Amino acid sequence: MAGKQELAVVLVSGGMDSCVAAAIAAREHHMAFLHVNYGQRTEKRELAAFHSIADFYSVERRLVCELDFLKRIGGSSLTDPDIPVPKADLHRKEIPASYVPFRNTHLLSIAVSWAEVIGANKIFIGAVEEDSSGYPDCRASYFHAFNRLIELGSKTGRQLAVHTPLIGMSKREIVLKGMELKAPLHFTWSCYQDEETACGECDSCALRLKGFSEAGAADPIPYKEGSSATPQ
Q1: What is the per-residue burial (b if ≥16 Cβ within 10 Å, else e) of 47-75?
Q2: DSSP readout, 107-136?
Q3: Least enclosed by CB within 10 Å: which of 63, 149, 158, 166?
């Protein structure tokens, strides 16, 4: 860590993308890890992955927040047990049922507040636009607008900004970058609906499997035997 002066808040869901974003941030920054529980189906498994990744990078500053109102608001298959998690469809054009309404805005708002208090000047998030499920709050234009909001609505102004190092990458490129940086991908969890063994059926599993397959690498996490989510 010698010579690393800047402090960065890194949003770490426990998934592969946020882990690789953390690996990128770790090259030049001291890191503070933020995780948010919002009533998602795999909340416990994601939290365990968060702490494993934080331990790997020896991150002492960790903030875990609870946003139970997102579950009470509902509207997403990730938070409402009455809405089934849709089967993977990597060619889907419409926004999927797994979209949590305006989630990233809530998460980033917490990150900005914490960054102001601890003196961080960067926020890293592992958002991906090109090879994602089509969530509107994962677009580069969204983060550009959010940085304008930070500039106008925080005491830090332009001194603080959200960074999205994966925004234009494919899942294949993310896997390769993670391997290059020796990120602990074996600790990560991406499945939308199961906590013991990844379902292999949801969009997140399918995108992850596709990335590893195209990178010519084996995914280190377990999947249910006979799952139908195969690389497309």
Answers
A1: bebbbbbbebbebeeebeeebeebbebbe
A2: HHHHHHHHHHHHT--EEE----STTSS--G
A3: 158
The answer to whether 223 and 201 have CB atoms below 8 angstroms apart is no
CATH number of 6-214: 3.60.20.30, 3.40.50.620, 3.30.457.10, 3.40.50.300? 3.40.50.620
Does the CA dihedral 100-152-158-141 come out positive or negative?
Answer: positive
pTM: 0.94
Along the 232 residues of the chain, how does pLDDT read in single tens digits?
444 579 999 999 999 999 999 999 999 999 999 999 999 999 999 999 999 999 999 999 999 999 999 999 999 999 999 999 999 998 888 999 999 999 999 999 999 999 999 999 999 999 999 766 789 999 999 999 999 999 999 998 889 999 999 999 999 999 999 999 999 999 999 999 999 999 999 999 999 999 999 999 999 999 998 765 444 4
Per DSSP, the three-state class of 176 is helix
β-strands 29-37, 122-124: how paired?
A: unpaired
Q: Where are the domains of the chain?
A: 6-214
Q: Sign of dihedral through CA atoms 36, 40, 45, 49?
A: negative
Q: Identify whether the C-beta of residue 34 lies closer than 8 Å to the C-beta of residue 11.
A: yes
